[in-house]
Every structure is written in C-alpha cells, then in structure tokens.
Specification:
alpha/beta; 14 helices; six-stranded mixed β-sheet
C-alpha cells in the first residue's frame, strides 16, 4: 500500500474515533471538532432525549426530557431507537427510559405497548403495573408477555427436558443393564475387590447400569419464588421453567410464589402467562411462611427437590426459616437456594442468611437460566450442585 493509501486509512480511523466521542459526549461535543450528519443526527437526537442534560430527573420528583412525557413523542422515540440500534441496545434504552423518565404510566396505553421491544425487564414492569392496568390495555399486555414467554421457551425448553430426562434415567439404577446403559464408573467402583494385578484389570462380577425412567412420577419439584419487586426477572424465568417441568410426566411440579402471603399457582402451570399474571410484584417478604407451606405439601421427602429463589431478605422469623430448611434436609429433601435466576449477574442479597444456609448444606448462589437445567439435574441425582 502506498503512503497516500496508509494516510487515508489513518485519517478514516481518526475520524471514526472523533465521531464516536462526539456521540458519547452528546450536546455540542465540545473539543471534538466533529459535526454530525445524516443518520448520525437522528441517533444523537434519540440518545440526547434519554441521556441528555435535560433528561435528568428534577428536584421534587418532577421529571423532564426530550421525550416530553407525552405518548406521541414517546411512541416516535421508540420507533426511532428501533431504527437506529440493535434489539439488545433498544431493550437497555427502554429500561433506562422507564427508570429515568418515569414512563411506566405510559405503558398502560395499548398504543405504547405495541411500539415497545418486548424483553424480560419489560415483562417485569408490566407485572408490577398489573393491578392498576385498565381492561383496554390488559389484552395487549398479555400479548407482549406471551411473546417474551414463547421466546424463552424456545430457547430453554428442549435443553431442559433433555437434561432432566437424562438425570431421571440415571437416577433409576438396574442390576441387569443393557450394554449401552452400563454405568462404568459405578461398576468399576463396585468391583474393585476383583482387581487382577497381573492383568491390570477389574473383573466385573456385578454390573451397575442406568435405568430407563418410566412414565410414572419419579421426582417431585417445588419451586418457591420470592415475588418482591427486586426479583422480577427471576419470577419470569422461574414461571417458564415451571411450565417446562410440569410438561414432564415423570416430574410432579408445584409452583408457589410469596411476599408476606403465599399463593400456590400449580393449577396454572400449563400456561406460564397465567402464572405471571397471578403474581403481584412488590411488598414484603416472609420466607418462613412460604417454606412452611411448601413443607406441608411434601409427601416423598427422599424424592423431592425444593428450589427457593430469593434474595433472602427475610421479614419473617429467621430461626424458624433456618429450622425448616434443616428439617427438610434431614428428612431427605434436596434443598437448592438461588439468589437469582436471571442473566443479570450477582444480585444484592442477605449475606448472613446465605452463610447460615450454607452451614446447613444448602449453599446459596445466583444462577443463569442456561445453567438452571444442570443445577436441577444435579439435584435430582443427589450429586454436588454446579454452583458458579
């Protein structure tokens, strides 16, 4: 390449850097000397409406910004950001708009809901508005929620069923397995006494194999979900997983949500959208009361997995809560504590309660939706959990 060509490439790279800095700085981009044109002008306007100086909340709770707080302006802005940015960025900007500019009330209008990009966080916001939502908006809101639920089921259902079916098959041992069903690890350990040093081999007098899970119920799973406001994403994912588990004949699934009251939504598990609209995000937290209810429903402790999904900020009786966990584990229940079931990383949680549960043999950790099938498989097989 000639020196002229190299210079042109360098100038283009420098210009691109200045352009990016101008978009980051917003306003007049003082110091960059870069003037935007074409598509960049529209992108800059969309960003400024949300993140510009005039978009910050004012004192006294009043808010203002480039969106003007009106439905037509917001609808136009939602259309603009979907034009300029990829879906993942649009979802972040929508969430920021709801939090920074107080746009939750506008989501009660059907026209607004039709304009937004559906995602898990939007579903959480709609569920928090469920009780004040007018009938004219409710069907549109259900359609938005259903779209997100169907996307999540498409992503998670097949892998979950395959992983848990394998775990159920392996949990049913047989002494006369077919060759393809031999559990070689357990077979070798069971026959170590038959080791022949001269041949450096083990003679397998007794074979241990994986059984094939029958259609009858093999395991029972209780999902106990904290529905306080901070757990919105976890409630969405847990409802989807609950529906997937309920579709498996060999697992009897119960889904319980709680704040200071306890609601059993098991009879709605065939439709996770009904489950979600049966929740009420917000309010206090009484984990002890929820666990007392779940404990009362356990009939086969040795074949039961209880999954508590909560940030563990307990408003009930702490010692009773821990006592219930200890009692369930002593009876043979596999107890799993998830601080969150979402893609958002480590949440805020009560570290003292988490440490107390860990001391009881029930370590608490955050779990992504993609890891959840592996966690459940380990719990069903009574092996160490793949905690991150």
């Amino acid at each position: 390449m000639s020196s002229t060509g190299i210079s042109a490439v360098g100038d283009a790279a420098a210009e691109a850097r200045l352009r990016r800095w101008r978009m980051v700085l917003g306003g007049d981009g003082d110091g960059t000397g870069c003037v935007l044109s074409g598509r960049d002008v529209g992108m800059d306007a969309a960003l400024s409406a949300l993140y510009g100086a005039g978009a910050a909340p004012k004192r006294g709770g009043e808010r203002s910004g480039g969106l003007g707080g009106s439905a037509p302006n917001v609808a136009r802005w939602l259309g603009d950001i979907r034009t300029y940015f990829p879906s993942s960025v649009v979802q972040v900007m929508q969430r920021d708009a709801i939090e920074r500019l107080g746009l939750s009330t506008l989501l009660l209008e059907p026209e607004m809901l039709e304009a937004v990009e559906p995602d898990v966080h939007l579903v959480g916001t709609l569920l928090s508005l469920n009780k004040v939502m007018p009938e004219t908006t409710r069907e549109t809101a259900r359609a938005v929620v259903r779209k997100v639920v169907e996307q999540l089921e498409k992503r998670l259902a097949s892998r979950t069923r395959a992983t848990l079916t394998g775990a159920l098959d392996r949990s049913a041992r047989t002494g006369r397995p077919r060759h393809a069903d031999i559990d070689w690890d357990r077979t070798i350990r069971a026959n170590l006494k038959n080791y022949l040093p001269e041949y450096k081999t083990v003679v397998p007098e007794r074979l241990v194999g994986y059984g094939r899970a029958a259609q009858a119920v093999k395991k029972e799973v209780v999902l106990c979900i904290d529905q306080s406001g901070s757990m919105a994403a976890s409630v969405v994912y847990a409802s989807v997983f609950g529906a997937v588990l309920a579709s498996m004949r060999s697992i009897a699934t119960r889904l319980v949500v709680f704040d200071t009251a306890v609601v059993d939504l098991t009879d709605q598990l065939d439709d996770p959208v009904d489950v979600l609209f049966g929740t009420q995000l917000g309010g206090g937290t009484d984990i002890n009361r929820a666990l007392a209810y779940c404990q009362s429903k356990i009939t086969r402790p040795a074949d039961t997995v209880v999954v508590l999904i909560s940030d563990l900020y307990e408003g009930g009786i702490r010692n009773e809560m821990l006592g219930r966990v200890a009692a369930m584990k002593a009876s043979g229940v596999e107890f799993v504590t998830l601080l969150a079931l979402s893609d958002e990383g480590a949440p805020a949680y009560d570290r003292e309660h988490a440490a107390a549960l860990a001391a009881l043999g029930a370590p608490a950790f955050a779990c992504t939706p993609d890891l959840f099938p592996e966690v459940m498989a380990a719990a069903l097989e009574k092996r160490p959990l793949p905690a991150p």
